[in-house]
Amino acid sequence: MTNNPHISIQHLGVQIGNHEILKDITINIPNKKVISIIGPSGCGKTTLLKSLNRLLDDTPDIKVTGKVLVDGEDIYDPKAEVTHIRQKMGLLSQRPYPLPMSIYDNVAYGPRIHGTRKKVDLDEIVETQLKATGLWNEVKDRLHAPATRLSIGQQQRLCLARGLAVEPEIILGDESTSALDPVSTSIIEDLFIRLKEKYTIVLVTHILRQARRVSDYIIFVYMGKIIEFGPTEEVLLSPKQELTKDYVKGFIS
Amino acid sequence: MIRRKIEENFFRILMVLATIVVAGSFFLIVGTIVYKGVPFMNWDMITKTPGGGFYIGKEGGVVNAIIGSLYVAGGATILGLLISIPVAIYINMYLAGRNIIANGLRIAFDVLFGIPSIVYGAFGFLIMVYFGIRASLLGGILAVTLLVIPILVRTLDEVIRTVPKELGDASLSLGATRWEMSKVIIRQIRPGVFTAILLSFGRAMGDVASVLFTAGFSDNIPTSLHQPAATLPVAIFFQLGSPVAEVQGRAYASALLLTIIVLIITVLSSVLAKRFSKNNIR
User: Fold this and answer.
1) pTM higher than 0.90
2) Which of B170, B176, B180 is facing A97, going by the closest CB pair?
3) Are residues B131 and B231 in the same domain?
4) B278: which chain A residues are within 8 Å (Cβ-Cβ)?
5) Same domain, B256 and B166
6) Is B281 in CB contact (< 8 Å) with chain A?
């Protein structure tokens, strides 16, 4: 494991109302790897993911305890700058949600709000990121068409490009392929594998085959607790915990 | 089996009848104002102010009321939007985690929505007396603004609530501030804003009670905010009360004009809504 993890979670607990969603989560996320969070529905895997960029802030009656250190900075410190934290992480949601603007403006949105104004710079960012997600050749002739004209798989890649344009260190994926067809899914999966050279990627998935295909490490969460964390092959093929064994074999779902 | 068939038919007939009543009254209303108004419709009606003796059937028109109504409804809608858009965004984007306050505000606006317009008129009148403002265009616009704010806020609120939460999250997770996120939401709700404008304008155009005391009445086209202004509904109200047949006929012609103006606004706002929805996510 690396010495200075981007993300280090220490005794994180999340409570909504009287319901404890996450209990005492402590984990160091390895850098520049793909990490999949797996577990049955309702186990808290999405909550765990969203706690990493404070997207839970708006949930009513929420209480967060413990620390999430991103580059050594506790993001739940009241003094932490939330926009700065979120800029470090690109989020890819379950379904693509392009912003209601053109393809170009979608990618340029992040850089623009962070102060890049020159057209030359923006043009370059848009081209680079669309190439990084393999969209460039498909859309270069219609950059100013509405983003909603793209197919849903293309939209998801556009959302990824949009996230990369703010130069994050971490990519968060919340079941990012669940709305896509098999071809688009495998394009996105390949992108994840390629992008881990530069980014740390944390994915939530309920597809074990996908976790196996793309991830280096697996976190198995059950009832709000981390049951097992380790390299993919180890967790899936020779799990140490009974619960993990049951889940992997399909006894719990 | 028979019972179910009877029940099915009974309720189907009931629904058809109800639809006929609604559609029928629509055609009856439009038909009546067209039938009674068209004979009195002439170029003078929409180009001239009331001349001497207009109210006993002599020459003149209601252009003063047309312009007055457009001023009042336009002014109130613009002023109302400037206040309502921030309120609707605040309720949805900033109070998101505190539903008690947000829902309290929604109930408050629902109550305001249901208050009869004469109350707004009386309230506006009271404020004008307090500040020493005479019945004027300004007074009318302010009273009608109060009337349309609840309509605008609730319509915009409903529209904003249809925006998927993930769209806001998408912008937030790129490091946007709440205001920057709100701007994305505003882009998405632009077509809905036109619906809100339409509802507000229609209500503002047609309301008598709120402008009766606050805007006053004048035979001249107002040239400043401090002059009294005529409005179409008030003009209709006065003319209908006249015993002279000619004047009564003009009331229907005025009603027809009012309907036509609202129709134009309806078509215009739905065309604009369509144009602005091209980038929208669905």
Assistant:
1) no
2) B170
3) yes
4) 146
5) yes
6) yes
What is the spatial distance between Cα A9 and Cα A20, in angstroms, rounded to a whole number? 17
- B94 and B20 within one domain: no
B25 and B94 housed in the same domain: no
**Is B281 inside a domain boundary?**
no
Over residues B153-193, the pLDDT tens digits come to: 999 999 998 888 889 889 988 989 888 998 999 889 988 89
Instruction: From chain B, pick out residues whose CB is under 8 angstroms from the CB of A89.
Output: 173
Report if residue B96 sits inside a domain. Answer: yes
ipTM over 0.95: no
Using the structure block, give the residue that is written with the tokens 């998935």.
A205
Q: What are the distances in angstroms from CA A207 to CA A40, A70, A92, A246?
A: 10, 27, 16, 15
Q: Where do runs of H (alpha helix) occur along chain B?
A: 2-37, 43-47, 63-89, 99-114, 117-131, 137-161, 165-172, 178-206, 209-212, 232-240, 245-276
Pair (B94, B25) in one structural domain: no
The per-residue pLDDT for range A66-109, each reduced to its tens digit, is 989 988 889 898 888 888 888 888 889 888 999 999 999 999 99
Check CB contact under 8 Å for B169 and A93. yes
pLDDT digit string (tens) for B64-121? 999 999 999 999 999 999 999 999 989 888 886 667 888 899 999 999 999 999 999 9
Q: Which amino acid is at A187?
A: I
User: Which one-letter DSSP state was computed for residue A174?
Assistant: E
Of B98, B175, B281, the CB nearest to A110: B175
Q: Is residue B143 part of a domain?
A: yes
Q: How many CB atoms lie within 10 A of CB B47?
A: 10
B176 in A contact zone (CB under 8 Å):
yes
B92 interfaces chain A, CB cutoff of 8 Å: no
Largest interatomic CA distance in chain B: 74
Q: Which residue of B has its CA nearest to A162?
A: B174
Range of the domain at B8: 2-40
* Residue numbers in A near B98 (CB within 8 A): 60
Shared domain for B16 and B82, answered yes or no, is no
B110 in a structural domain: yes
Same domain, B8 and B99: no
Interface size between A and B, measured as CB pairs under 8 A: 83
Q: Measured between beta carbons, which residues in chain A are less than 8 angstroms from residue B97?
A: 57-60, 62
Run of H or E including A62: strand A62-70
CATH code of residue B181: 1.10.3720.10
Q: Residues B150, B29: one domain?
A: no
pLDDT score for A1: 44
A159:B280 CB<8 A? no
Q: Which of B97, B164, B281 sits opposite A60 (nearest CB)?
A: B97
| Structural domains counted in chain B | 2
